[in-house]
Amino acid sequence: MPTAVETVEVLRAEDLVRTYQVGSVLRRSHVSAVDGVSLSLHRGEVLGVVGESGCGKSTLARMLVGLERPDAGRLLYRDTDVTAGHREDRKRLRDGVQMIFQDPYASLDPRMTVLDIVAEPLAANGSGTRSSRRDKVAELLSLVGLAPDMMARYAHQFSGGQRQRIGIARALALDPDVLICDEPVSALDVSVQAQVVNLLADLRKRLGVAIVFIAHDLSVVRHLADRVAVMYLGRIAEIGDTASIYDNPANPYTQALLSAVPSPDRGARGGVSRRRVLTGEPPSPIDPPSGCRFNPRCWLAQDRCHTEVPDLRVVGSTSRRAACHFAESALSGS
Amino acid sequence: MDTLVRPALRVRGLSVTFPVSGVDIPAVRHVDLDVPRGELVALLGESGSGKSVTARAVMGLAGEGAQVSADELTLGDVDLNSASARTLRELRGARMSLVLQDALSALNPVLTIGDQLGELFRIHQGASKKVARSRAADLLGQVGIPAPAKRIDDYPHQFSGGMRQRILIAMAIALEPELLIADEPTTALDVTVQAQILDLLGSLRTQLDMGVLLITHDLAVVSEVADRLAVMYAGRVVEAGDADTVLSRPSHPYTEALLRSVPRIEHHGGDLFTIPGSPPNPARVPSGCPFHPRCHRAIDLCSSVRPELLATADGRTVACHRSEEVLDAHSR
């Protein structure tokens, strides 16, 4: 449960849309990567975003940090519209929203020392002198659990977990309000993942930084997130507080997804073979189905689902919202 | 464990070393492993633990320069240790086969699926092109690919990731081998597809009475499907036994710590148990017990004397000076 989630809204997305064109000029097709995603993020809050590959979670992340411009919709950072991506918009967004990447081996320049890597956002921002930046880097490194005297070393001298800590220190250099983490632990060894997960939880508590945690590992998201958004083919299928989503999913897709997660508890063995089996072709964001995009694979689908796009609406007594015409029957059937 | 009636694979004292700039780096050290027919044995370990090298060495595919030695290496009744390269080549595919993680690079992009599957029947069994093609279509159906007759002329890129993994499995089981080694077969897949592949491996194992050696780093997958389990760390098996026994009451601190450090879908919040540091580089394995610098139960003895892998009363083997204490902690 969120302990001290304050009500200051730091980041807000309204109906973000991103479409790519693929194929030749003669046979043009459209990849609808993100289609009408709205969400808001409050100070100190962890929002988990889950979904399968191709559901648009990484495209969403890139739009939230301004690496990708939405085709439609608005992005607001602390009530300022930064959608247009003008010079000052980008600067404002960079000061407040930073990204942590999946692959700690590819996201650090092998020819730069740790000092240069972590100080780069500060230098680019023109803040402080060389020596004050050095002090700040030392402070950041100890914040993420690395010894400050390691700052003269190069990235290759560190293990995967340590590199991810360096990436986190770099993201924190400008004291951002929001960290966007795109699969931050999936490239790490199992025995190292817990260290980084704990670090992120600790940073949220100590610095009040809000975190968008994107992952395909549903157990990690459950552990860390206050709220969860489940995405399917570019749209939010269900969003709400973590406990409601995991304990009582109201969207058929969420139910199927959660039932396929294996448990490390031996007592729960066999859960996966008793899962809700999805029929039909696996989803592709190229020319997605009309109406509810989940309809070809859904066991509750009726005619209405083929034509009418379901709204995200409140289902049950909680603050959870689900995009399904038959969420009530899904909820009672689960 | 010698009472097992029908072993598909029996490995005793397997070691693999790779020469790297004049120095021999041991990747696998004295590994013992049994895979009975009809059972699924998981080999659990992190990167660099030697789990994939073990699998490749069994298949005779350890690579150039690798020095493989074993006291005993048998596939059913065949001694792989003394087998010639030619014999090994005939055995691969027919009696033992390997499924790799990256299905796209394991398939030939310029040949149709039908050609690649049919090749197995043509080369190993001398089947005609027509027969090979129809048997390939049957196989595709068996691994759950819809409309196999239509898809047999498609190329690998026309299939999704999960479908490609099914095709690899189809190739691996084509000649009904007694041993299937699957090296991280679901790591690149989404959970819903992973569940389908695990189901498929499970049902094929029963249908064909194969022994399956599943190599993975994912504890949840192991817990879901494994009958037996061997945990590897720094090139050695540190704990092995019946999966129920090992997972419910681990007796090695590494197994214990791994089980405690994974987040569970039923739980939220709080700090996760962490293992400090990271897995050792095979070239610089710590003295004594290789896990001692990261172990929460280490004593002085652990840094100097390496614990032998010993059998315990409940039928498992464990290499730890303090396994009794670990067991006690879990029976309370």
From TrEMBL, chain A:
GO terms for biological process: peptide transport; transmembrane transport. Gene3D superfamilies: P-loop containing nucleotide triphosphate hydrolases. It comes from the Bacteria. The keyword Signal does not apply. Residues 264-288 are annotated as: Disordered. InterPro entries: AAA+_ATPase, ABC_transp_ATP-bind, ABC_transporter-like_ATP-bd, ABC_transporter-like_CS, Oligopep_ABC_C, P-loop_NTPase. Keywords: ATP-binding, Nucleotide-binding, Transport. PROSITE patterns: ABC_TRANSPORTER_1, ABC_TRANSPORTER_2. The keyword Transcription regulation does not apply. Residues 11-258 form the ABC transporter domain. It holds the Pfam family ABC_tran. GO terms for molecular function: ATP binding; ATP hydrolysis activity. Belongs to the ABC transporter superfamily. This is Dipeptide/oligopeptide/nickel ABC transporter ATP-binding protein. It comes from Actinophytocola xinjiangensis.
UniProtKB/TrEMBL annotation, chain B:
Residues 9-259 form the ABC transporter domain. It is found in: Cell membrane. InterPro entries: AAA+_ATPase (IPR003593), ABC_Ni/Peptide_Import (IPR050388), ABC_transporter-like_ATP-bd (IPR003439), ABC_transporter-like_CS (IPR017871), Oligopep_ABC_C (IPR013563), P-loop_NTPase (IPR027417). The keyword Membrane applies. GO terms for biological process: peptide transport. GO terms for cellular component: plasma membrane. Its main location: membrane. Gene3D superfamilies: P-loop containing nucleotide triphosphate hydrolases. This is Methionine ABC transporter ATP-binding protein.
